[in-house]
Amino acid sequence: MQNCPVARTLAALGPPSAVLVLSEAYFGTNRFGDFVRNLAMTESAVTARLRHLVKAGLLSREPYQEPGQRTRYEYHLTKMGQDLAPTLVGLMEWGETYLPGDEGRQVRLTHAGCGKAVASQVRCADGHDVGVDEIIMGPPKLDEDPDGGGPNGENPNGGGPARAGQTADRPSRNG
């Protein structure tokens, strides 16, 4: 499992409640009391989740002090945390589509610049929209460019490229 990027990502994210803390950080929450209030979680749970996210490198912990008060800490997204934004948008979009609340959709994400809806999309390095049945999975080639544009999508382990749902070691159940 340690070679699986999905398993490594889930381990870095931690329990589902940590993802909720991270979601709050995306939308501007950065102080401990605000996390507790906004998420209706116990202080000990928020402390544990923040500690995990800092250790995982997704949040940084920065001291601040208001006049006459003791030093406290704010939590800010790191570059690694910011780079998870498309994943979080995808989770929110999927949840709103397939698991709407009792009152229907609860969230609409919009682009601050133009007011249009924000959506997650899968694209190749050349900018083409990619459907799940068009994704080829296999080990990276030695001469592959870092943006994922390997020549011809060839699988270096032989057997040709693997489509979504199959790898060089595990063929698709559909043949």
Can you walk me through this structure?
The chain has 175 residues and is mainly α. It has a domain at 5-83: Arc Repressor Mutant, subunit A (Orthogonal Bundle). 34% of the residues lie in helices and 7% in strands. The chain contains 6 helices and 2 strands. The protein has helices at 5-13, 16-26, 32-39, 43-55, 79-82, 85-98, and strands spanning 59-64, 72-77. Strands 1-2 form a two-stranded antiparallel ribbon.
Please tag this protein with its features.
mainly alpha, two-stranded antiparallel sheet, 7% strand, globular
Tell me the strand percentage band.
5-15%
End-to-end CA span: 24 Å
Q: What is the residue-mean pLDDT, rounded to a whole number?
A: 84
CATH class of the domain at 5-83: Mainly Alpha
The proportion of residues forming helix, as a percent range, comes to: 25-40%
State the total count of DSSP E strands. 2
CATH homologous superfamily placement of the domain at 5-83? Winged helix-like DNA-binding domain superfamily/Winged helix DNA-binding domain
CA-atom Rg in angstroms: 20 Å
Short description:
With 175 residues, the chain is mainly alpha-helical. It is built from 6 helices and 2 strands; from the N terminus they run ααααββαα.
Provide the fold topology:
Layout: H1 5-13, H2 16-26, H3 32-39, H4 43-55, E1 59-64, E2 72-77, H5 79-82, H6 85-98
Antiparallel strand pairs: 1-2
Helix pairs in contact: 2-4
